[in-house]
Amino acid sequence: MPAGKIEHVEELATAAAAKYVPGSRLGPLISADQRKEVESFLEPGAGGADAVTVTSPLELPERGYYVSPTVISRVAPDSRLAQEEVFGPVLAVLAARSDEDAVALANDSIYGLGGAVWGPDEAALDVAGRLQTGQVDINGGAFNPAAPFGGYKQSGIGREIGEYGIADVLEIKAVQR
Fold first, then answer.
1. Can you give the pTM of this predicted structure?
2. Which residues contact 127 (CB under 8 A, 6 or more apart)?
């Protein structure tokens, strides 16, 4: 990513994270163990040597297993943060030099639950089609409750919701007479 663009992305991501107020727009995690797991991604070195961490300076509610929304930028592609699913309010920012580089970075994981692409519609659609992930939002696309939910590789095996979710739990039988 060219100099100056990563800083702009960091500013946008930090401003967006600040809008997620714990106890209001952002709910708690399911358990103390899950909070501990998410916090382990925030420890020094989890994102790689070049990581720049920005945590929204929010006061957390006393009750519930909350984690402040956190943006970690300049994440190393081979770091734990880039390679594992966090399942908490943590955004890892990895810089790419081209669409091809971005696709390679996104696909370099054993997981593939969801992703997002921003850019000119045709180029974004092309990139979305090459991502090994079960769902891709383009330019902040609206949630579609009829779309199937599930991932690729070791993430979200099978499908839930919509026509594909129903088909995933049916046993097809042919009976001839």
1. 0.81
2. 99, 102, 103, 117, 119
